[in-house]
């Protein structure tokens, strides 16, 4: 994307952190997005993320009709949106369209390719306990979010996903037109002491996915 003086600006990523223990990886991801990938980064926290960083109230600057609305400004500013970690709570909110904080409002207003607005990549990196990751609702919620993207084969894609017993990240990226991308968690020792699937994907993997989607802006 070019700016008027002819210089190429840096890709812009809105980096959201939700209330998962894996939020401790947030600072590393943010720093590496800037230093290694050259992104222009803005950070957005949910209330759960406040346990790790400080957050601002979206509406404190809004006084009257015509004043800037933060979640719309953030949507318009960003070329892509990364949510890492994506907690089970925020996953449920996104899939049901709830709008009770800045992030959920950004996601509800995100450009999924409908109408005259071009779509922009949405990258989701879930992190949760194994039992929560393997719960049937998790798969259904991920399928619902995949269906937000406006593609001609959305119905067939959802039917394909519903026929699988587990959610496969490769399926979410097989259709290049669908830029809702799930960065699958990994198996490791979890915060609860159990060993299982549900840990946040490695920072290297998250950065790789961000790099691959930067060209879609």
UniProtKB/TrEMBL annotation:
InterPro entries tied to this protein: Flavin_trans-like, Flavoprotein
Location of the Flavoprotein domain: 12-152
Pfam families: Flavoprotein
The keyword Cell wall biogenesis/degradation appears for this protein: no
Keywords tagged on the record: Coenzyme A biosynthesis
Segments of skewed composition (Low complexity): 157-167
GO biological process: coenzyme A biosynthetic process
Region Disordered: start-end pairs: 156-179
Protein name: Flavo protein
Organism of this sequence: Fragilariopsis cylindrus CCMP1102
The organism's taxonomic lineage, starting at the top: Eukaryota, Sar, Stramenopiles, Ochrophyta, Bacillariophyta
